[in-house]
Design goal:
Layout: H1 4-11, E1 12-14, H2 22-28, H3 34-55, H4 59-88, H5 90-99, H6 109-115, E2 122-128, E3 144-151, H7 154-163, E4 173-174, E5 189-195, H8 204-214, E6 215-226, H9 229-232, E7 242-246, E8 249-253, E9 257-260, H10 261-265, E10 269-276, E11 286-293
Helix pairs in contact: 3-4, 4-5, 4-7
Pfam families: Methyltransf_23
InterPro entries: SAM-dependent_MTases_sf
Length: 295
């Protein structure tokens, strides 16, 4: 698994990351409820005071630790948003109903275009950062589709959906993009897909590298993300990374970091990107990325 901070030395530029300490994090938990605050209090103290001693002379590891700390705070916002959405929004009720139907078609043109090029009937897809319910869909003519949705908040989402009586054909399982290789076997999927989720990770480069390892030699990594969402979201919550396509090259950046993804992944990966300009009724531009293993 690639480390984002370590990889930047080969593929981008970085200034000093924002410092995040346990006091600042714990203060952000105020008002979140005693149960959540207590649980995270123990986790964060362990993270900072034990790990700090072993990482004190490793700047790259310390920066990664700070990214994960901010990500931990952002998970609280993400959890609260999804719980509110799936519990009360009328749109969510329709989404939940459709998601329980195995006949729900795959609509993303990025996926359907790839499916039209492969002769295999059985297709395995991993949806990284899927949220409570995968948006991939389940059915495509002539294919037997298997979906593995993964999200770090899967256990919480399962409780929310259980209260709503929602039973999914492919429930989301718990997992982080940065640790996928400890959970799934290499070359076990045809498609590794992420939609508006990798910009929420604490190490998007490592996650992308893991996704590439998970697909077969003729498989593909497909990414669909809003353009520069961290800038639009003013770096609040999980919005810590911007995705863009500049001069036909996939770029991940924030205030501290600028990474050319093809340069970091190296010659073993072929990276292509394009911009889908927002049309009327669409929120903002999307960055579409396809990554394949080089022959």
């Amino acid at each position: 698994m690639l480390n984002l901070i370590g990889s930047i030395a080969h593929g981008g530029e970085m200034t000093q990351p924002t410092k995040v300490g346990p006091r600042r994090i714990l203060s952000a938990l105020q008002g979140r409820g005693a149960r959540v605050a207590t649980k995270l209090h123990l986790t964060l103290l362990s993270t900072f005071y034990v790990a700090r001693q072993t990482l004190s002379r490793n700047a790259d590891a310390k920066a990664r630790l700070g990214n994960k700390a901010k990500w931990t705070i952002g998970l609280l916002n993400e959890r609260d948003w999804h719980e509110s959405y799936h519990s009360s929004e009328p749109e969510a009720a329709q989404f939940q109903a459709e998601a329980q139907n195995l006949e729900c078609p795959i609509r993303d043109p990025m996926i359907t275009k790839y499916l039209s090029t492969v002769s295999r009937t059985d297709i395995a897809i991993i949806d990284v950062g899927a949220g409570a319910i995968t948006q991939v869909g389940y059915m495509h003519p002539g294919k037997n589709i298997s979906i593995t949705p993964v999200d770090p908040l899967a256990d919480h989402y399962a409780n929310v959906l259980r209260k709503r009586g929602v039973k999914l054909p492919f429930p989301t399982v718990k997992g982080d993009g940065e640790t996928l290789l400890s959970q799934f076997s290499r070359a076990s999927f045809d498609i590794a897909y992420a939609r508006n989720s990798l910009d929420h990770t604490y190490d998007p480069i490592a996650t992308i590298a893991n996704m590439l390892e998970l697909v077969r030699d003729d498989g593909v990594v497909l990414l669909r993300h809003y353009r520069d969402e961290a800038e639009g979201g003013e770096y609040e919550g999980l919005h810590q990374w911007n995705f863009d396509c500049k001069d036909d090259r996939f770029v991940i950046w924030n205030k501290d970091t600028h990474v050319l993804v093809d340069k970091v992944l190296g010659p073993n990966a072929k990276v292509s990107c394009s911009v889908h300009l927002a049309r009327k009724g669409e929120w903002r531009d999307e960055i579409l990325v396809m990554i394949t293993k080089a022959a």
